[in-house]
Amino acid sequence: MATPLEKWVDEQARLTKPKKIWWCDGSEEEAHRLIEIGIKEERIAGRPIFYELNHRTFPNSYLHRSHPTDVARTEHLTYICHPDKETAGPNNNWMAPKEAKRILTKLSDGCMRSRTMYVLPYMMGHPESPYAKACVQLTDSSYVAISMRIMTRMGKDLLEKIKDSDDFVKGLHSVGDLDPKRRFIIHFPEENFVWSIGSGYGGNALLGKKCFSLRIASWLGLREGWLAEHMVIIGIEDPKGNITYVTAALPSACGKTNLAMLESSLTGYKVWTLGDDIAWLNVGPDGRLWAINPEIGFFGVARGTSPKTNPNMMKALKKEKFYPTLFTNTALNLDTNEPWWEGMDGPVPNSIVDWQGTPWDSSQGTQAAHPNSRFTVSIYHAPTLSSEFDNPKGVPISAILFGGKRMHVKPLVVEGFDWQNSIFLGSRMGSETTAAATHEVGVVRRDPMAMLPFCGYNMADYFRHWLNIGKRLTNPPKIFSVNWFRTDAQGNYLWPGFRENIRVLKWVVDRVNNRVDAARAPIGLIPYLKDLDLEGLNISRENLERLFEIDVKEWQKEAEDIEIFFRSFGERMPKEIWQELNEMKEKLR
Ligand code: SAT
Ligand code: MN
C-alpha cells in the first residue's frame, strides 16, 4: 500500500510528467553526483546549472548563473490563498484557493517533461525540538536541491518519521519556462502547501525558507500561540563571559548576515551566531521568550561582503568543507577561477566576466556582480557558531531589535517604553527597498517587524498576536529600534556600522541588565551619550548628536505616513496600536 507521501508524489508526477523521479537521501555522495549532473548534463535555458570554482581557495564551491530575469523575490507574483481575502489582509496578494489551483494546474501540466523530479525530505528545526516540522519539497532543479541540502536538515531518515502520516509540509516547485509571465509563488496555508512555478531564485524556490518557515509558519504560529519571524539570532558575550541572547529583524539585504557574524571592535565582547534570517519564537514555561533557527545555512548577499565588513563570513566561504557552497550571480575572475563581486577587498582583477558570463571591465559603468548576488553556505562553517546552535530547546531572548534602512528621521537606537509601545515601535518600522525583491530600489515603505513580504495573514491580526504573546511573558525581552543608515546633509553615513555596531549592542545589554538609564523622548527611550562606549572610535560630537536627533517636523510627517498605513487595515487594526500612535503624536506636538 502506498503511503500518503508516495501517493502525493505520484499525483504530482502525473501532473508534471518528469522523465524520472529521484528520492534524495541528503548524503554527501548524492550532493556530489547532483553537482556533477548540474555541470555536465542538466541545462536550464541552455546553460549548465553549476560551474566549478577554484577549490584551492574556495573549497567545494560552485558558481550558478540564473536566468537574467530571475534574480530576486517577486512579491507581485506571490499569493496567500486563504479561503477569504480578509484573512490574507491588505499586506498580501490573494486569490481564491480554487482559482489559484486552476491556474497552477494548467501551468504545471507537463512542466517537468524531460526533466528529473527530485524529492527532498527535510526538517525545519532540530529533529529533537518539539517545534520542528517535517517537510517534503518536489523540484526539477538540481540547484534548488543542493541549496535545500545546505539550508535545511535533509535526509532519508525523515521518510521513516513521516511513514504513514499525512502530517508533513508540502512544496511543489518547477522552474517551468522561467517566463515571469508564467511565474507564481502561491501559498495554501490551510493545507500546509506551497506551489511555486517559473523561478529558480532562492526566496521563490527554496520552499522551506520564506514560503514555509515564514509565510505558512506565521499562520501556524497564530493558531498555535507562537511567532515565526524574519530575524537574526545572536548571543552577545561580555568580558565576564555572560551571554545575552538577542534577535534582530531587518528587511532583506539590510545587513542581517553581517550582524549575525559581527566581529566586535570592543575588547572582551564577542558575538555568537545562531541564525541570520529566521527565528521561531515560543513562550517558555519560565515566562521567557525562546528562539530557535529552523535553518542550518546562510543565503546571504555576496556584494559588499569583505574581510572588512564580514571577516567571519569570508572565513566561512573559504573554509575546507564537506557541504558544498554555492555562489549565485557573482562575477568570475577568469585568471584565478574565483568568484568576485564589487566591495570585495583588493584591486579589481584584470580578467572578469560579469554575473551573466559576459566579459566586463570597470570602465563600462555596469555592475559585474548582480546587486542581489548571493552565497549559500552551511552555518556549520561559521567560525562564530554558537555552542547552543544545536540545542533543541533554543535560547532565551533578552532583547529584540527592529531595524530598517533610513537615511533620515530615525535615531541610531530607541527603546520601547513597555510591551504595548514596543509593538507599536515594531509595527511603525519603515525601510528603503533593496535589490532583494524586484521593485524600485531605495523608496521608503512601511515594513513592520521586517515582515511585510513574509506575514502569511492579515497584519492587523499579526499585531494583535504580538500583543497577546506579551500577556503570556512574565519576563519579556526589551524591544529596541535600530538604524545604522542615517546620513548627513551630503549623504555620508553618520555611523560606521558593521563591527562598530557592537557599541549599540553593548548598550542594549546594559539596558537589559539595568546597568544604565535612558532618556524619555516622545518616540521612546534613547541613550545618554555618556553610556555609549565610544572608546577608540573616531566620531565627531556633532555626528553623534545628529544620530540621535529627533526632528519634530520630520516625525510628524512620519506619523502621518504610519497613520495611512495603519488605516489600510481598517477596523481590524488593534485599538492599542492606535492609542500608541495618538500618544506619540500628542507628545510630538
Ligand atoms: O531570497 S530570500 O527571500 O530567501 C532572501 C531575502 O530576500 O531575504
Ligand atoms: Mn531574509
Question: What features would you describe in this structure?
Answer:
With 589 residues, the protein is an alpha+beta fold. The chain has three domains: 4-48 and 73-225, Phosphoenolpyruvate Carboxykinase, domain 1 (3-Layer(aba) Sandwich), CATH 3.40.449.10; 229-296 and 387-588, Phosphoenolpyruvate Carboxykinase, domain 3 (Alpha-Beta Complex); 298-381, Phosphoenolpyruvate Carboxykinase, domain 2. It is built from 16 helices and 32 strands. A hairpin with a 5-residue loop joins strand 17 and strand 18. Sulfoacetic acid binds next to helix 7 and helix 8. Manganese (II) ion (MN) is lined by residues 230, 252, 277.
- The counted number of beta strands is 32
Task: Give the count of helical stretches.
Answer: 16
At CATH level 2, the architecture of the largest domain is Alpha-Beta Complex
Low-confidence stretches: none
Bound molecules: sulfoacetic acid, manganese (II) ion
Note the overall shape.
globular
CATH topology of the largest domain: Phosphoenolpyruvate Carboxykinase, domain 3
Q: What's the gyration radius in Å?
A: 23 Å
Alpha-beta content class: alpha+beta
**Please, what is the average pLDDT?**
97
CATH level 1 name of the largest domain = Alpha Beta
Strand content: 15-25%
Q: How many strands, which pairing sense, and closed or not: the largest β-sheet?
A: 9 strands, mixed
Distance between the termini: 71 Å
The total number of structural domains is 3
Q: How much helix is in the residues?
A: 25-40%
